[in-house]
Write a structure and sequence with these properties.
This protein has 450 residues and is of the alpha/beta class. It folds into four domains: 5-130, Response regulator (Rossmann fold, 3-Layer(aba) Sandwich); 164-313, Rossmann fold (3-Layer(aba) Sandwich), CATH 3.40.50.300; 316-395, Helicase, Ruva Protein, domain 3 (Orthogonal Bundle); 400-450, Arc Repressor Mutant, subunit A, CATH 1.10.10. Helices cover 44% and strands 14% of the residues. The protein has 18 helices and 16 strands. It has a five-stranded parallel β-sheet with strand order 2-1-3-4-5, with helices on both faces. Strands 7-10-13-6-14 form a five-stranded parallel β-sheet. Strand 1 (5-9), helix 1 (13-25) and strand 2 form a beta-alpha-beta unit. Helix 2 packs parallel to helix 3 and helix 17 (423-430) crosses helix 18. The longest helix has 28 residues, at 111-138. The termini are far apart. Bound molecules: adenosine-5'-diphosphate and magnesium ion.
Length: 450
């Protein structure tokens, strides 16, 4: 690949200089980075075609663990990585390759070997890209189509055209599968920060004990398990957008930590006393009723006020039937391409059936239904019979008629058992207050810890 950009990631200036000389004389564009933070930021911003990654970034370490940690953080970017180390051992090479590196060279390098490896990796990734482009050509709508035919979605379109270019914090509300994550992506793409990274943090997926380190990063030795420096999400998203998904799952104890950085724009990397400035645009999303969480004192009101400068509520699919036909067309073309079928059509009867379903899983559920129909169809047209919709009828046979108290007791026992007896968690599942749950535990004499 001529004109390919290569990121040389090494803390040793002499090595960067030598590699830069060699590779630019071969016609490559060069970017350099000397530490972990720069590597991640440059890789996100400049999207190099290949990274040459040193394994040790502090002169006194030789374990290669730093390189492996950076490699892990580079993985989502899908950039080919060639590892370099002066202390190359087969074991480290294998570890690196297992973590997704594409090749491995030893320092001092053999020029010919190095150049060959680079050429080879670039041509592999070019083929991969061509294939992707080809697939997109076949199905132009396959990549993240955005259907917004209905009046309510049109109103959202108008709104985001106005607010995307501002730096205002945005809170996106809506049921599961209504397109909150996709909307966050669109807002970022329409914003002035579009060339900087969009970094997503799923609040429900971060263990409490790692929350600060995930968001703010840590320095080696900041706590027992902090074996390497780690770059936090605020730093990764610098000058870009930070997307907090499932913000309603953020535990109350951790909320002040987030509040502080939103209020002051400042934070510290764990283990460092130097104050950092956050330059991020914040988008958050949740399917929870945050106001209700506030009234139950499970979510801080001051934090909510920081997040909800602007609120966009995406209506559930059952309330925007005007989008159904377009969604059907879009997903049919997407899945026809995926399964290499001729693009199918859909009967009017089938469209009507789609409009009558209540779609508790919204567009995510919709896409699964269409995917199955495309897979199963043997003719050119998808008919109503081929649409396998899950019954959402609440009076289905799984509910047994019995004294109400007995049902209540069973629900409480179930909630206590799935939460391992944690009253607070069980109360959340049942959507009642802790005290209300305690009263019922007493009433039914269900064993519990205080
Ligand atoms: N307006 C839309 N047009 C087309 N596809 C959409 C739209 N909104 C959501 N989708 C698709 O539906 C699925 C669920 O969307 P997602 O953004 O993950 O929902 P949420 O974050 O609200 O759970 C994804 O595959 C997404 O691409
Ligand atoms: Mg989502």
């Amino acid at each position: 690949m001529t004109n390919a950009t290569i990121l040389i990631a090494d803390d040793d200036e002499d090595i960067r200089f030598a590699l830069n000389l060699l590779l630019s004389s071969e016609g490559y564009q060069i970017i350099e980075a000397e530490n972990a933070k720069e590597i991640i930021i440059q890789s996100n911003r400049q999207q190099p075609d290949l990274v040459l990654l040193d394994m040790n970034f502090s002169r006194d370490t030789t374990s290669g663990q730093e390189g492996l940690a950076i490699l892990e953080q580079l993985q989502p970017l899908n950039i080919p990585v060639i590892l370099m180390t002066a202390w190359g051992s087969i074991e480290l090479a294998v570890q690196g390759l297992q973590k997704g590196a594409n090749d491995f060279i030893e320092k001092p390098w053999n020029k010919l070997k190095l150049l060959n490896s680079i050429k080879q990796q670039l041509s592999f990734s070019q083929v991969k890209e061509q294939n992707q482009g080809y697939r997109q050509l076949l199905a132009p709508e396959s990549k993240k189509a955005w259907v917004c035919q209905s009046p309510s979605m049109q109103a959202i379109e108008t709104l985001i055209a106005q607010i995307a270019p501002t730096d205002a914090n945005i809170l996106i509300l809506g049921e599961n599968g209504t397109g909150k994550s996709l909307l966050a992506e669109r807002i970022h793409q329409l914003s002035l920060r579009q060339h900087a990274p969009l970094i997503t943090v799923n609040m429900a997926a971060i263990p409490d004990s790692l929350f600060e380190s995930e968001l703010f990063g840590h320095q080696k030795g900041a706590f027992t398990d902090a074996k390497q420096n780690r770059i936090g999400r605020f730093q990764l998203a610098d000058k870009g957008t930070l997307f907090f998904d499932e913000i309603g799952s953020l535990p109350l104890t951790l909320q002040p930590k987030l509040l502080r950085v939103l209020e002051t724009g400042q934070f510290e990397i764990l283990g460092s006393s130097q104050t950092q400035v956050a330059d991020v645009r914040l988008i958050s999303a949740t399917n929870a009723d945050l106001k209700q969480l506030v009234s139950k004192q499970a979510f801080r009101q001051d934090l909510l006020y920081r997040l909800n400068t602007l609120v966009i509520t995406i209506p559930p699919l059952r309330e925007r039937l005007e989008d159904i036909a377009d969604l059907a067309i879009s997903f049919i073309s997407q899945f026809s391409a995926k399964y290499r079928k001729q693009t199918l059509t859909m009967s009017a009867c089938a469209i009507n059936k789609l409009k009558q379903h209540s779609w508790p899983g919204n567009i995510r559920e919709f896409s699964h239904v269409i995917e199955r129909a495309v897979l199963l169809s043997s003719t050119d047209e998808i008919t109503a019979q081929q649409l396998l919709l899950e019954s959402t009828d609440n009076t289905s046979d799984s509910v047994i008629l019995q004294p109400l108290e007995q049902s209540e007791r069973q629900l409480i026992e179930k909630a206590m058992s799935v939460t391992d007896g944690q009253v607070i968690e069980a109360a959340k599942l049942l959507d009642i207050s802790r005290n209300a749950l305690y009263r019922r535990l007493e009433k039914f004499a269900i064993h519990h810890d205080q």
